[in-house]
Amino acid sequence: MNVIVLKNNLKEALSIISGARKESGNLPILKNFLLETQGEKLKLSSTDLEIGINALISAKIIKEGSLVIPYNIFNQIINNLTSERISLEKKDNSLLITSDNYKAKISTVSKEDFPIIPEIKNKKANFCECESDYFIESLSSVVSACQVSDIRPELSGINFWFKNNEIKLAATDSFRLAEKTMSDKKIDFQFEKEFSFIIPLKTASEIIRIFSLKKDEKIKIFFELNQISVESENIKLFSRLIEGKFPEYEFIIPKDFETEAVMDKNDLVGALKLSGSLSNRLNEVKFITDESFKNIRVFSSSQEFGESEYLLPAKIKGTVAKVIFNWRFILDGLKNLKNQSVFIGFNGEEKASLIKSADDPSYVYIVMPIKSS
Amino acid sequence: MDLKKLWEKTLSDIELQISKPNFLTWFKNSRPIEKNEQSGTIIIGVSNNFAKEWIQSKYSKMILEIIRNLDPSINKVDYVVLTDSNINKRIYSENKKSDEQQSAGQIGFIEFAADPETNLHPKYCFKNFVVGSSNELAYAAANAVSKEPGKKYNPLFVYGGTGLGKTHLIQAIGNEILKNFKGRIKVKYVPSEKFVNDVVWAIRTKRMDDIKNKYRTVDVLIIDDIQFIGGKERSEEEFFHTFNILYQNNKQIILSSDRPPSQIPTLEDRLRSRFEGGMIADITYPDYEMKLAIIKNKTLEKNIIFPEEVNHIIAVKIQRNIREIEGIINKLFFYKEFKNNELDAKTTEEIINATLQQNMVNINPQMVIKCVSDFFEINPQDITNKSRRKEVVMPRQIVMFLLRDMLGMSYPDIGDKLGKRDHTTAIHSYNKISGKIMSDKNLNQKIVLIKESINKSRS
Known about the structure:
- The complex is a heterodimer of chains A (373) and B (459).
- Chain A is of the alpha+beta class and 373 residues long.
- Chain A has 6 helices and 27 strands.
- In chain A, helix 1 (7-17) runs antiparallel to helix 2 (71-80) and helix 5 (265-276) packs antiparallel against helix 6.
- Chain A is elongated.
- The relative contact order of chain A is 0.11.
- Chain B is an alpha/beta fold.
- Chain B is elongated and about 95 Å long.
């Protein structure tokens, strides 16, 4: 193999594939990545056997070929090089890296041992296609509600539910749940029948990390029984799916509320952050709607440091609500609302409350309260 | 040679030929799925897609050679990705405890606690179900069903008052079947309320097929509190057809209710006769020894031990509801933990009395009269007037009994409230009913139902 590439292209590709390698574990080969020529391009691939990522970059191919080298060493070298043009040449079992004022020889690893990244063979049956911006925005809006640990495998990922003419994304850690509906106006898709799958949280984070750099690109998502692949022109991310079934959550989304309140988003964010600074270990913040129906009083107290009260102007309907929440949970949901006007539907101190934009039905966030002690 | 043995032998051969890390990475959790005798193909399940690709491209030749040495009739090996690895399931139940401890105060979606595939809650199993004379029959039937679902006792109908362990028992059957048949049998547990909701949803969105798919493709269908389906016509109809299809295909059906089929008032006859066609088992009130065993079991689960006398007091004081026992134990546990006090007989009694009385707050004589008259479908005024008609006398006696039993009212007061009767009438009624309860199961059942409806009307 003998190629010449631009440093910045190489750096970008290295960053794209960085999330899918494994520095420790049974198979030391996973610390390495695969560098190979593919037509007029250079392809970098890495995998941790859960996710596999390929990135294609343009390069001048002098001689075709492929090799496997340790990621960390190569990445360090490329990041510290000052020259723009880099020549990569394979000689015997080594890779020669040459630039204007630098040369290095690093030993390669046997290519035979590098895992094969699976591909989805049938790309006609089940896929969807949309702008990366919209997809990334939708996915990002639900990940914060996802369960971080492995306690319940089926909750440690984002559920994709393809039905009729929409895709519903949902995540929950069993204390709160976020759901985003992607409509067919902004997304093309084709699938055989209504079905759903769960992508692991790590895969979702990688998708967001990689494709949020790639604005204005179309991305395609292909899926099969237990695998998914997300592809743009030059990037391909393959991942396994989580086995198991996401809970049927539709019926826990409340439709009616004892108390309804509409307020300004910035006011509420301010209230939460201020109250949060004086809340206790459980992040408890108490919401009480005023009897005048013009304000929500937000209380917090910490045995150690003191207490606070914030008067939050709001339009309120219904009965007087008195509910305690983990303020971080509320803030997580608020971050994803686009409009200034926020709706909260309360259902007493033991049932789920619902947060959404007052005029955007495509995103709902429901959160369970903390029991008053 | 059977397939499992064959694969085991193959694996031990492969292990000799490739490195340990490679073996662990690619062949962990692999297992044979089936063998097609005609074409000589065997199918091997592997843990993920990476393993499938890798084995196919790197090891398939070696594996085929090894297998053909062991069994020459095989000439092809196919690989599939396993979708039901049991590894995940294990993590799920083991970590359940730490999960609950972390979230003190923060309420979660209770609906999510159950396994989403089957709806069964892993905490219900036979192991922690206390068996005594009151539930022996139901337990034995449950046990038989879990060994051979669909063959014996179909449908199995379990009935008994609230908090006596119906849900525990029928969910335990489900969990036991899952354990015994490891994924080969599809179990679904559903409270009848959810079934009704599903039917309503399906009618609204015109997706009856979804319902049919969901409920008619299972091997074991468990429906809790089936009495709530009574009077809901479309749900009854849908359930009737589901029942027939499952029954004809020898699929097991398990039902629970707070009363026997004959006493579910609005139930259609064709359903009633079907419910009665299998095995009907009741769960009645636990006796003293059984309650003691339950208390010990529950405390053991929480890793605490109460003094013997405390256990004794709980068993004596809490008459009928096992759920109440659980509540009391939690309360006592809390007391012990946070006040750092050892429990003695006196405090235990105080705590129990406070709890029991709290339950009775908000109940007034009018509610008792209304619930009793509703139950017997008579006019509430008949209870308080002078009528001596037969259909009124018994309900009136029951009201007096309940006023004494539940509210602890004095006899003169009771007599006064019920149309200025003499206190001796009240005494007579109370003694008569409380005596009869012991011998007359039917009456006992009625009184339990009335008490439940009083408790419900309280809020």
